[in-house]
Q: What sequence folds into this?
């Protein structure tokens, strides 16, 4: 009988020195004293690939308190439903409405799964549109240890839809699992809260997010070799960002 392959253990790279970490003296230092613990990777989860599976099932396979950083870009219908842009029959609108939509309940289930797998003081970067930004997403976070700690505006530089003003920005809410802290956790202090990066039209997905910005965000809150997850990855922009920043990606999409 063939022997069972030994499980893959994801281990962060060795620390550069065995000396105890230097004390973080300022919130603006580049230190990160938070470490993710190594964990045994379930066989179904292959790192740095485009897994085709349900994101809630994906999250349930991960152990608790092991992931330093996650991205979540829910497939909601907020703007389309509430403002009734009604372009579902046309090109990009057609592709958008063909994607599997998430109910509010599903979004809450995703966030509660993300809350479970994150390390203490770990981050979720949650993409929202202006409708959700104005209405608030606090309901989604109820019962979790996630708190909103910052906001980054992505300026795509191109015009989108809008009966009044035309949309050209999307928003990335920065959520942190308690305990909430920046000192010794967030290590890049040159990132502005409005970032211009052209929309990645060539990725073939109507909601593709900016690879460089996501790379910078993950670099701010993780070490090289750390695991970055995205349970609804669409065009897998976070996979490309993770590879460019020497992080390990784990993620999936229902459409693969
Ligand atoms: C807004 S898009 C993500 C776009 C992605 N951030 C990017 O940069 O390309 C949301 C994705 O969620 C996927 N999706 C919907 N329900 C899902 C589920 N239950 N599990 C996994 N993926 C799901 C859709 O197929 C869609 O591709």
A:
């Amino acid at each position: 009988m063939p022997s069972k392959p030994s499980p893959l253990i994801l281990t962060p790279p060795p620390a550069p020195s065995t000396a105890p970490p230097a004390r973080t003296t300022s919130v603006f230092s580049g230190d990160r004293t938070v470490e993710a613990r190594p964990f045994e990777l379930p066989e179904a989860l292959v790192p740095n690939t485009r897994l085709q599976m349900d994101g809630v099932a994906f999250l349930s396979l991960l152990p608790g308190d092991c992931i330093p950083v996650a991205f979540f870009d829910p497939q909601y219908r907020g703007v389309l439903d509430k403002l009734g842009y009604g372009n579902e029959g046309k090109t990009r609108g057609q592709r958008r409405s063909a994607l599997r939509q998430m109910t509010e309940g599903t979004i809450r289930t995703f966030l509660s799964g993300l809350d479970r797998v994150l390390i203490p003081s770990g981050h979720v970067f949650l993409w929202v549109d202006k409708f959700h930004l104005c209405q608030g997403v606090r309901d989604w976070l109820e019962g979790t240890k996630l708190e909103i700690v910052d906001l980054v505006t992505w300026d795509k530089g191109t015009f989108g839809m809008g009966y009044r003003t035309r949309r050209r920005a999307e928003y990335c809410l920065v959520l942190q699992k308690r305990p909430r802290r920046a000192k010794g956790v967030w290590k890049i202090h040159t990132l502005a809260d409005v970032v211009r990066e052209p929309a990645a039209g060539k990725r073939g997905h109507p909601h593709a997010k900016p690879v460089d910005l996501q790379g910078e965000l993950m670099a701010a809150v993780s070490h090289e070799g750390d695991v970055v997850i995205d349970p609804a990855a669409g065009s897998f922009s976070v996979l490309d960002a993770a590879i460019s920043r020497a992080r390990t990606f784990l993620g999936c999409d229902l459409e693969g």
About this structure: The longest strand covers residues 118-128.
